[in-house]
Backbone:
């Protein structure tokens, strides 16, 4: 059996960014510049990196981009007031409040205060509902599953496969990935199973999958023996695990692995996403795509 087709997240994400930049130029020519506002509360280093990367991507797409950085002790009322001002700002089409928020803030209350039309994360219950009733043209879809879906389409193209009628198994039932991923696969006429930590005989369930999506946050949990020969395997996990030796500063090295044992899976699958360089590259690209989409809808374009 030959090795699986490797889905290159960087190349696919770069293609999405190019399309967004070109769509932005067309919208700007009509007098509308897409705007993305990010909100970061506190100084969590990982969140700072993510929010910085989102701002940079927004600028590279030709958006108006603004970052609001607030101290960790910011009160909920102040945060709600900031969101209200961004809701009312016609230059802002997308609002992203970086998670996690500090413990004293009611995160669902803040996310639900975002105008659903500007909710480029797709976390607002209105967008969750629109996705679940199949109103894709009105919903904003969470970025990671939307990006995974594009990779699945690329895999189908490469393998000459079609999705309708296929068995899709999603391991993980989070609101951010597992559940919206299931809705997307269902909208593409797959037969969908959502497996999770209480699923009986998970390897057997996974082996049914023509499309297997792993989104559990367990390093290399999905083994090669769980993969049906020729399946499309999408690994959403990003887990940092101990590596070998010491880095330049004398600290133990770490490395990133997915939820799938990559080398094993690649020997069996038809197509597979690597970690790093797979689905992770797609999330920010889809955030840009959602922001352009929100701006186009606001402009009636
Ligand atoms: N924190 C980690 N991932 C995300 C994301 O996709 N959106 C937001 N808002 N916060 C996050």
Residues:
């Amino acid at each position: 059996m030959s090795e699986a087709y490797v889905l290159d997240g960087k190349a696919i994400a770069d293609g999405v960014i190019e399309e967004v930049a070109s769509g932005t130029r067309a919208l700007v020519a009509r007098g509308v510049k897409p705007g993305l506002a990010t909100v970061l509360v506190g100084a969590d280093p990982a969140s700072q990196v993510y929010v910085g990367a989102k701002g940079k991507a927004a600028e590279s797409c030709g958006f108006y981009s603004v970052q609001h950085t607030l101290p960790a002790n910011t009160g909920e009322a102040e945060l709600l007031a900031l969101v209200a001002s961004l809701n009312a700002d016609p230059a802002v089409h997308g609002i992203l409040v970086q998670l996690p928020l500090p413990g004293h803030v009611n995160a669902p209350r803040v996310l639900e205060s975002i105008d659903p039309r500007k909710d480029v994360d797709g976390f607002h219950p209105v967008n969750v509902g629109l996705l679940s009733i199949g109103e894709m043209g009105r919903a904003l879809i969470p970025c990671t599953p939307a990006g995974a879906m594009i990779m699945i389409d690329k895999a189908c193209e490469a393998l000459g496969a079609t999705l309708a009628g296929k068995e899709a198994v999603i391991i993980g039932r989070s609101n951010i990935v597992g559940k919206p991923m299931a809705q997307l696969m269902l909208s593409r006429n797959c037969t969908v199973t959502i497996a999770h930590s209480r699923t009986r005989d998970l390897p057997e369930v996974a082996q049914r999958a023509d499309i297997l999506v792993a989104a559990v946050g367990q390093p290399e949990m999905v083994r090669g023996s769980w993969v049906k020969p020729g399946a499309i395997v999408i690994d959403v996990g990003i887990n940092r695990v101990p590596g070998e030796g010491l880095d330049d500063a004398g600290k133990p090295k770490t490395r990133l692995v997915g939820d799938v044992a990559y080398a094993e899976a690649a020997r069996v699958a038809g197509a597979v996403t690597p970690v790093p360089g797979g689905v992770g590259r797609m999330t920010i690209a889809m955030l840009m795509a959602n922001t352009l989409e929100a701006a186009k809808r606001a402009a009636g374009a």
User: Anything to note?
Assistant: Residues 142-280 form a domain with the Rossmann fold fold (CATH 3.40.50.720). The CA atoms of residues 294 and 300 lie 10 Å apart. The chain is about 40% helix and 20% strand.
